[in-house]
Amino acid sequence: MLKSTKVFGAALLLFAPTAGYAADLYEPPIIEAPEPLPPIIEPAAPEFGGWYIRGDVDYHWSKLRGTEYITYGPGAGGLRGGTASFDTTDLKGAMSLGAGVGYQINRYLRADLTADYWFKSDFNGSTSGTCSGGVPCVSTDTSAYSAWLLMANAYIDLGTYHGVTPYVGAGIGGAHIKWDDLTNTTPDGTTVHEGSSNWRFAYSLMAGASYCLTENLNLDMGYRFTRVNGGRMFEYASGVAPGFDKGFNVHEARAGLRYQFGGNTNCAAPQVVTYDPPPFEPPVYK
């Protein structure tokens, strides 16, 4: 019995340090670092805005909305007044040139001030009446008008698709109309009425599209309708006048270039901001 107790005690002393050493050799499970995440790319908020200049060339067709002139003749108590109008009127098409300065407010809105010069549109008209001897006759009337058009305009850009930006717009301003002398020819002879010039109210409606040639340069093509109020057309001569036109409807086919100085444009490539995730730090075991 004593011998067995000694053997058990010796075995216990031998096992105890071995178990403690085994506990010291414990290793935690290996945790693998996750794969690094790709950079996060988000579009940067574009800073739109910038001054631009523009130049345009167009061909326009004008149509008179009516004419009227005063006539005089003998009657009781002196001169008797009346009014008449041209039987026929026709205005030929003509070229025009324009320039302007504007500001791109944001991606969808811009505004500019423009000045256009309309070259002379030839006028041909006719009237009917009575010539010498009470014989009915028809006159031939010729003149021409030119104009300066000054407008304040606003446009809505409708988005950019493969470099093309459609837009609509409107403008308000004034037109300085200058009529050449009116030459009235009948079988009785020729009468020249001095042409008049005056400022008139005008407004415009536009539609078109621009195309990105470079980041800052656009080719602009479109249509503009302009309505000009009526005004004095020619002065008194030989018992007739003054004469008045009742205004114009003008249709324009336009093309031009628009260059923006600085700022972001609809033609600029999208800007991006890259965020790199923080580096992975493995856990520390103590």
From TrEMBL:
InterPro entries: Beta-barrel_OMP (IPR027385), OMP/PagP_B-barrel (IPR011250). Keywords: Signal. It comes from the Bacteria. Transmembrane segments: none annotated. Residues 1-22 form the signal peptide. It holds the Pfam family OMP_b-brl. The keyword Signal applies. This is Porin family protein. It comes from Nitratireductor aquimarinus.
